[in-house]
Amino acid sequence: MIRIKSPEQIEQMKSAGSLSKAALRLAGSMAKPGVTTKEIDTAVERFIRLHGAIPTFKGYGGFPGSICASVNEQIVHGFPSQKTVLEEGDILSVDTGATFGGWVGDNAWTFAIGSVSPEVMGLCECTRDCLKAAIEQAVPGNRLGDVGFAVQSLAESNGYGVVREYVGHGVGHEMHEDPNVPNYGKRGRGVRLQAGMVIAIEPMITMGTYSNHVLPNGWTVVTDDGLPAAHYENTVAITDDGPVILTQDEDGPWCQIQGGEQ
Question: Which of 6, 11, 79, 190 places its Cα 20 to 30 Å from the Cα of 118?
């Protein structure tokens, strides 16, 4: 069941969204060669709890981290680890979630570690552009197929793969609500969007094949061909005035962190 939010509830969700964005900025500021993904995870958890919120991912379905930290060929759900030391030329996709005031904010960004190759940077830039194009379609009267088509057409026209098995989702009091938000689709198909829907739009785009598999830890998804993948995400409210990104900077005690172009 799709849960429609009132304008007042959408306004309340902005605090969770801005905190999750600030946590993501903190992760980006730490994403440098020689740093472990566990160090970033620890700092993000401390940051979220310091501001009276709960790291949404921690313990979710047994997930061990407060962030998903996916390096290079890892598409999503990478485990933070003291053994994973970031190296020059890597890319790190960080997904953060914060529950504040009973609402969830959920967002992700792919960070370049030092200097990366032009080919990998092109993948990241295209995936970021896919997110922007999809958000532009998140208006009342459009359908989920319009959102997915925006991602798929842009990614595939640039020679990249679009992951099918993992999709965006509704967001509210729970991290995962209806509807599912695929990154592929046909214009004019799928659920009709209406004001008050809040969805996480999150393109997951691959350098090569979109085929993937899950590692033995039961969580981490990697490309079958070992080529890199990028992941960007925002929580977006659909309103009569157009899409409103809830995971964005807002005045508040947690919004002083800078790091990465987000």
Answer: 79
